[in-house]
Amino acid sequence: MGDVYKALADPTRRAILDELQDRNGQTLFELCVRLTGKGFTSTRQAISQHLAVLAESGLVVLRRQGRYTFIDLDTSPLQQIYQRWRVGPCESDT
């Protein structure tokens, strides 16, 4: 779960997740264009590095289709965090 917190700590990574929430299944090129339109000045290489961190945490899934790689949002790690505090350790033990 620590990887999820690390992934969410960076504002650029949070912006990437916001963009994928708005429009899932984008390519790296599409994502870079949309982020640039919102004032982010990160290079394509920097966005790729951010995506690697997000993929390691399980928040995004990279899907190859032909010669393109599509980026999909996966909110299941966030659901695990939510459930941790929603249920809580005391309630789950009973």
List keywords for this structure.
94 residues, alpha+beta, three-stranded antiparallel β-sheet, 5 helices, 3 strands, globular, transcription regulation, ArsR-like_HTH
Sheet with the most strands? Answer: 3 strands, antiparallel
Distance between the termini: 24 Å
User: Which structural class matches the secondary elements?
Assistant: alpha+beta
Shape: globular
Q: Got a strand count?
A: 3
The ordered string of helix (H) and strand (E) elements is HHEHHEEH
* Strand arrangement across the biggest beta sheet: 1-3-2
Q: What is the percent of helical residues?
A: 55-70%
Query: Any idea what the radius of gyration is?
Result: 15 Å
- Mean pLDDT across every amino acid position: 90
Q: What is the count of helical runs?
A: 5
Q: Which strand-content bin applies to the residues?
A: 5-15%
Q: Any low-confidence stretches, pLDDT <50, length ≥5?
A: none
Organism: Micromonospora fiedleri
InterPro entries: ArsR-like_HTH, HTH_ArsR_DNA-bd_dom, HTH_MetalResp_TranReg, WH-like_DNA-bd_sf, WH_DNA-bd_sf
Protein name: Helix-turn-helix transcriptional regulator
Keywords: DNA-binding, Transcription, Transcription regulation
